[in-house]
Design goal:
Elements lengths: L3 E3 L9 H5 L5 E4 L2 E4 L9 H5 L5 E3 L12 E6 L1 H4 L5 H13 L4 E4 L1 H17 L5 E2 L4 H10 L13 H13 L6 E7 L21 E4 H11 L11 H7 L13 E5 L1 H12 L8 E5 L15 H11 L16 H8 L4 H15 L15 H9 L9 H8 L1
Parallel strand pairs: 5-6, 5-8, 7-11, 8-9, 10-11
Antiparallel strand pairs: 1-4, 2-3
Helix pairs in contact: 5-7, 5-9, 13-14
The structure holds iron/sulfur cluster (2 copies).
The site of one iron/sulfur cluster has 15 residues, from helix 2.
């Protein structure tokens, strides 16, 4: 499900967003941009490309706090990398609490537990390899463009869900309305509380964009403090430069940024990554620490993680990982391989009748996209102006 919203009044119809979308989820029809919500992978490229602010990603707001008796904020490990020292991390947690929360939960011990589980899986893995599933953009990209690789994906464990389930258990006996708010470091995580990848339901009530909170956080920073004991393993999971599994360093392929991720997946699809046990893939530069809703920059954040790792000694959360294969199967079976092959053949049959210029005159970013629309019955060959012209002349 796409989190991108469109404002017609701001749109200058420049079609930049159409060109940058890596999965051709944007079309221009009837003088307005249309986003194919089920095709969008929430990478944020269109938002970055639109200088007119015609496209945006919105999460919940702090106004939602008033509907709950007990308000809990979940802080992703990546946000810890925005602080330069552990003392500053504690100030950050205290400041977030001061925005109206009763408790602020550090997700790094849960990420640490996931990293530990992953170390074991990497050690046990033989050919071909496992593919990480912690980046929602990569997950959706694989679903949309590389469905043959779905079977290699690590079960979709999420630290925010693990922590939320524990909070629900611990507060079940309280006669209070408990609101769980996830602070999101990237736009792709904003819809995961409503539409979690692989999971059938979510315990999170609201997802907040960290960048929306920044003005209030920066104003209050330095006036509050809350004790935090970050997990080194959790920090490593959020930072591509630091993630590794001891003894298997040369068996891990790490790729960050959409272009590199796509290259890795292309190679994986053609069986050219022999000898790898694990592909660690992230849309954001340097991993989640480079999240597109964080302040600072990915290079500085990676440096901060290096500094934190010299001092932090927090333990990982005790988590029982239930096999979520059932839920992953649901994702895999949204379309069977046979269905996908038939669909591919139908689209190719239409594509052969189009000129192949990818000119965008029809409002679609490429002829393939147009062919997909024709195959789905939402457009016809007559919608192609170039073809009409060629047929007439
Ligand atoms: S980039 Fe922005 S202004 Fe240009 S077509 Fe897309 S939404 Fe409209
Ligand atoms: S967020 Fe990414 S996938 Fe979605 S419409 Fe924008 S560019 Fe395309």
């Amino acid at each position: 499900m796409s989190v991108v919203t469109y404002t017609l009044a701001k749109c200058q119809k420049c079609m930049k967003c159409l060109r940058v979308c890596p999965v051709e989820a944007i079309t221009m029809k009837d003088e307005r941009v249309r986003i194919n919500k089920s095709r969008c992978i929430n990478c944020g490229k269109c938002i970055d490309s639109c200088v007119h602010q015609g496209l945006q990603a919105k999460g919940s707001t702090l106004a939602e706090l008033e509907y709950y008796d007990l308000k809990i904020a979940l802080v992703p490990s990546a946000l810890l990398a925005a602080a330069s020292t552990v003392s500053q991390i504690e100030e950050l947690f205290g400041t977030i609490k001061s925005l109206g929360f009763d408790e602020v939960v550090d997700l790094s011990p849960y990420d640490g537990a996931i990293a530990n589980e992953l170390y074991g899986m990497i050690a046990d893995q033989k050919e071909p390899y496992l593919i990480s599933s912690f980046c929602p953009v990569v997950n959706r990209l694989i679903e949309v463009k590389y469905p043959m690789l779905l079977e290699y994906m690590v079960p979709p464990y999420r630290s925010a869900e693990l922590a939320s389930r524990r909070i629900r258990e611990e507060t079940a006996k309280l006669n209070q309305k408990v609101g769980i708010f996830l602070l999101c470091e990237c736009i792709a995580k904003l819809p995961t509380s409503k539409y979690p990848y692989g999971d059938t339901s979510s315990e999170i009530d609201h997802a907040l964009s960290i960048v929306d909170l920044f003005p209030r956080i920066s104003k209050e920073m330095g006036n509050h403090r809350d004790h935090v004991d970050p997990s080194p393993d959790g920090l490593k999971l959020a930072s591509s430069a630091h993630f590794t599994a001891k003894g298997y360093e040369s068996h891990i392929l790490k790729a960050d940024g959409l272009e590199k991720v796509q290259l890795a997946l292309d190679l994986a699809e053609f069986g050219q990554l022999k000898g790898r046990h694990y592909l660690h893939l992230a849309n954001c530069i340097n991993g989640c620490v480079g999240g597109n809703l964080l302040w600072g920059n990915p290079f500085e954040a990676t440096q901060h993680v290096s500094e934190h790792l010299k001092t932090v000694r927090g333990t990982n959360a005790q988590v029982v990982f239930e096999a979520s294969e059932e839920s992953l199967d649901e994702v895999n079976e949204r379309k069977s391989i046979q269905e996908r092959i038939l669909e591919y053949a139908r689209v190719n049959a239409q594509l052969e009748q189009l000129p192949g210029y990818d000119c965008g005159a029809c409002g679609f970013a490429s002829c393939r996209m147009m062919a997909e629309e024709i195959a789905a019955g939402r457009a016809t060959l007559e919608n192609c102006r170039i073809r009409n012209h060629e047929v007439k002349s």
